[in-house]
Amino acid sequence: MTSLWVESSDVLPLVDVEVAFPVGSLLDPVGREGLAQMAGHLARRGPTGISQARFEDQLAALGARVSVEVTMRSTRIRATVLRRNLEPLLPLLERLIWRPALRAGDFATLKRQAEGTLRSRLDDDQTLGALRFRKALFGDHPYSRTLGGTAASLKRIDLERARRFYRRHVAGGPFIVGLAGDVTHEDAESLVQRYFPSPGASRPVTSDVKPTRTRRGRHVIIVDKPERTQTQLFIGTLGARTRDPKLFPLIVSNTAFGGTFSGPLMQQVRGVRGWSYGAYSRLLHSAQRDAWYMWTAPSSEYSAACAALQIELMERWVDRGIKKTELTFAQRYLINGHCFDRDTPSKRLESNLDVELLGIPRRYVDKYDALVSGVTQADAVDATRARIRPRDLTIVVVATAAEVASSFEALPGVSSLEIVPFDRR
Amino acid sequence: MVAPELWVERLNRGVAKRNARWTFVREQAFGDALTLRRFRLGNGLTVLTLIDRAAPTVSYHTWFRVGSRHETAGKTGLAHLFEHLMFNETRKHKHGDFDRLMERAGAEANAATWTDWTYYYENAPRDALPLLIELEADRMANLVLRAPQVSSEKEVVANERKLRVEDDVEGKALEMLYANAFKRHPYRWPTIGWMKDIRGFTVRDCQQFYRTHYSAANATVVIAGDFDERKALRLVQKQYGTLPKTNPPVSVALPKEPAQRAERVLRLEAPTPTEKLLLGYQAPEFSHPDTPALVLASEVLFGGRSSRLHRLFCLEREVALSVRGSISPFVDPGLFEIWIFVSHGRRRQDALALLDSELERLGSDGPTSVELEKAAAQLELSFLHSMETAGGKAEQIGFYETVAHDGAAVFDRLAGYRAVTATDVQRVVRKYLRPSRRTRVEILPSA
């Protein structure tokens, strides 16, 4: 029997269906980044035996939407449908997932669209900064890759490779099914058995990757874009692994520093100086150490001053740690607000599927409150000092280089400065 | 079950002040399972309640009938700046308390301002409701406005403007569109305000704005989620009942837009990789009887992968990477907006010609019955999604109450979509989506 998760709620006549596969962009071959996403999106164009247009008409008439999301470690095919049409949707979904057409014509269109999407990204300064930050932070590690690939890598992906990838890793492999909303466990089980196949024979390919490594020193990368009055600023370093014993202390500590509106990062940058509409710090975690970073969007004229302030605040946070009152505040914030991570059936389903797919320990979901409340001030201070290294920082700023380069070069401890055109592909 | 009239009477026992006495106005079905109740305090505050025990959360919305339409030339952006200032100190709470208390309770607090309204909301664990009521009532009457906070918040808003407009090609184009599509109506200026105006605000401007627009009689509170209705109303009575009864601001008749008789064309050069087209057709107000048919037309043309224009523009002809359309949900007549993100190497003129011919086709032949069925099903799906959380329900209620004067009208709107015929769609497309009624912004990559 397929692994099945059900979150029932009859509040709305709506059902979400998710079929999730433990394969993602980490399986993209070097030089062919974007393959997993391309394969997933190609399958989304429709099953065999029916035109794409007719397939889309059928979905729309059912009051259904289907999307494919590829992440580093998963491919998730999600459908949402009016309850009365759940049963007619499932055979359509089965055909889409396990009997996709993977047509040559669709592939050609999709490839042009993927290239177009990469081009349109040049309009989005925040995304430009975020992608460049990961590239600079992780270097040649697979975590630096983008899901959609690059113009060069897309060129190297051909139809046969996309078909092979999908058939081998997705349609032929193990999967998990989740249903959330107006459906009982009993009905869900019976429907899944009726319409979905048994898991394929292919064994899952491991997505294990080597550990990420800290780049020593402070490195500034300016993504040079003309006519910028304002900048996108990312400052960060390596953070934590999902299974890091210091993860929860670090989550609490980071929340106290830059995870709320009341924290010192937001207060000093926005509250006191009005320098940026937003100011926050984020701690990401994956199988290997992922990123910890701060984000702000200050005007060009004080962007470097804002960066200096952020670094100073960060150094103080790592050096002095957080106060007892800050610890308690962060714990209350996390625990009290946790109800919003599970206030809909689809959110509850997602967290269960994350456990299954991403290797997140079950207790992170089931014992969340205890894990947060169990963090002591000493734990938080110790975890912050052990994982966050202010000496080793990647600083990415999207700006008009001529206006900011000299002031960023003068930031304390900067060991290199590189200027990259915003439209370098 | 005790009727609301009876327990409201009990809440009023011993309450001498007229401003603090409740009136139960009515209850209405909210879908199949829920009930929306309407109450009014003596000082004019309207409170709408919706009990929904799907999750242990509560959503608290305060909608004020004030937006950028209530500003004057030279003072644009004041409604939005003021929204920021509402998170500052009050006579009871020092600067920073509001966010700190909310966050400690696990509440997400934020706000939004647009042309016709400003709203403040908190999504919180259910136990936090007394705190939400206390803090919201407090800032409705006791806000303290000082120069340092006004100055710092002006800088934040200036940065927000750079983020959303000056350095954002879509934001800049939208600003150009509205500035040129409207000649008299205040919809012509941006809600965030012109930079010069933002820089020029004084503490006195803000105080005056607060006195004029922030009062119980100019607000609607919506409480949705898992809470005890009687206890909540008792707390509201206690916290808001001391607020004075004032007349809502006198509504000034806004100038009517002159009929547009010819297309207006503008150009924007920006560091963007591809050409784009932004079109705005003069469209009716949200409550106009033609609006549901225009929404259906929009769904037929732009609603997802099976829509006419997605199929034609993005898959068959590949003249655009994406297309989208929407209607501005305003109290007064607004715009039907269309975005065309032209494919690299393709010409915007070809995309425009294709659009015109498709609009003409829809106007002359109308949609098929299958298209209408698809559109209605997709709108129903979107509607249900918007209702998933207590916050989603509160937002819909607050919006419909403020713009359509009936918080429960959201369900009527859904029924209205089902009643739209092919002939209705044909008629509104011919009436509204004509080139002579539109303003066109052509976005071109700068050299």
Total helices of chain A: the number is 17
Uncertain segments of chain A of ≥5 residues (pLDDT<50)? none
**Helix-strand pattern of chain A, N to C?**
EEHHEEHHHHHEHEEEHHEEEHHHHHHEHE
- Overall strand count of chain A: 13
Provide the β-strand percentage band of chain A: 15-25%
Strand order of the largest sheet of chain A: 9-11-7-12-6-13
Helix content of chain A: 40-55%
**Counted beta strands of chain B:** 12
Q: Helix/strand-derived class of chain A? A: alpha/beta
How far apart are the termini of chain A? 46 Å
- Main β-sheet of chain A, in a few words? 6 strands, mixed
CATH topology of the largest domain in chain A: Cytochrome Bc1 Complex, Chain A, domain 1
Shape of chain B: globular
Order of helices and strands of chain B: HEEEEHHEEHHHHHEHEEHHEEHHHHHE
* 3D shape of chain A: globular
Explain briefly what this protein structure is.
With 425 residues, chain A is an alpha/beta fold. Chain A is built from 17 helices and 13 strands. Chain A has helices at residues 35-43, 52-62, 86-98, 104-120, 125-138, 151-155, 159-171, 185-195, 247-258, 264-272, 303-320, 324-337, 345-358, 362-366, 368-373, 377-387, 401-409, and strands spanning 3-8, 14-21, 64-70, 75-82, 176-181, 218-224, 232-238, 240-241, 279-283, 285-286, 291-296, 393-399, 414-421.
Give the arrangement of secondary structure elements.
The complex is a heterodimer of chains A (425) and B (447).
Chain A: E1 3-8, E2 14-21, H1 35-43, H2 52-62, E3 64-70, E4 75-82, H3 86-98, H4 104-120, H5 125-138, H6 151-155, H7 159-171, E5 176-181, H8 185-195, E6 218-224, E7 232-238, E8 240-241, H9 247-258, H10 264-272, E9 279-283, E10 285-286, E11 291-296, H11 303-320, H12 324-337, H13 345-358, H14 362-366, H15 368-373, H16 377-387, E12 393-399, H17 401-409, E13 414-421
Parallel strand pairs in A: 1-5, 6-12, 6-13, 8-10
Antiparallel strand pairs in A: 2-4, 2-5, 3-4, 7-11, 7-12, 9-11
Chain B: H1 4-12, E1 22-30, E2 34-41, E3 46-51, E4 57-64, H2 78-85, H3 97-104, E5 108-113, E6 118-125, H4 129-141, H5 147-166, H6 169-181, H7 195-200, H8 203-213, E7 219-225, H9 229-240, E8 264-270, E9 276-282, H10 291-302, H11 308-316, E10 320-327, E11 335-342, H12 348-365, H13 369-386, H14 390-404, H15 409-419, H16 422-432, E12 438-445
Parallel strand pairs in B: 3-7, 8-12
Antiparallel strand pairs in B: 1-2, 2-3, 4-6, 4-7, 5-6, 9-11, 9-12, 10-11
Helix pairs in contact in B: 2-5, 4-9, 10-13, 10-16, 12-16
